Amino acid sequence: MESAYLNTTPRTPRTLLFAPAEGTLVNDELFERILIPIAGPDDAEATARAVRPHLDPGTTLIVTHVTRGESGETTIKTGRDQFAGATYERFYDILYRDDLRFEWVTLEAREVAAALVDAVGMTEATLVAFTPRDIDDWKRTITGDPGGRLIREADVPVMVFPDRRA
After folding, report:
1. CA 23, CA 30: separation in Å to the nearest integer?
2. What does the buried/exposed string (b/e) look like for 96-115 if buried means 16 or more CB atoms within 10 Å of the residue's CB?
3. Which residue has the higher pLDDT, 27 or 150?
4. DSSP summary character for residue 77
5. From residue 105, how far is each of 46, 62, 123 by CA, in Å?
6. What would the mean pLDDT of 21-46 be, rounded to a whole number?
7. Which residue from 9, 53, 84, 107 could staple onto 65, CB 3.0 to 4.6 Å apart?
8. Boundaries of each UspA domain copy (predicted)?
9. Is it true that domain 28-160 has CATH number 3.40.50.620?
10. Cα angle 81-82-87, degrees, rounded to a multiple of 5
């Protein structure tokens, strides 16, 4: 008869801390200009609540909304878009802080993901931060939706925050 072996030796918990490698861009420059794509008012609220505790004074937030366009190129939309305006207002109402700078950029493009990748260069963003539209479906985020494409193709680091809405 075989017996099971159970290791009852107490383990000491270990904490591993990693310091950034010398010469890497893990410093204040990384968080200078953060591109924050938002899809609509509810997404604006979730994203504002997610990023709020992580923002340093003096950070510039480039809050971006993409509207459907006909051209294959990404352009900055001029004029007032009511939906984008309501989306920006919700974000600002939740996140308002005197020590942050805000830029509002409405883009027009055929593909949301391509527009967001283009927006990184157009706005000189140093980082992208967003909450996925459906936190329960990470496969979709990594493999096929605009967030996944943004993660794969952006020329700057991308931070994905969990959507804490219940």
Report:
1. 13
2. eeeebebebbbbbbebbbbb
3. 150
4. P
5. 19, 7, 9
6. 80
7. 84
8. 31-162
9. yes
10. 100
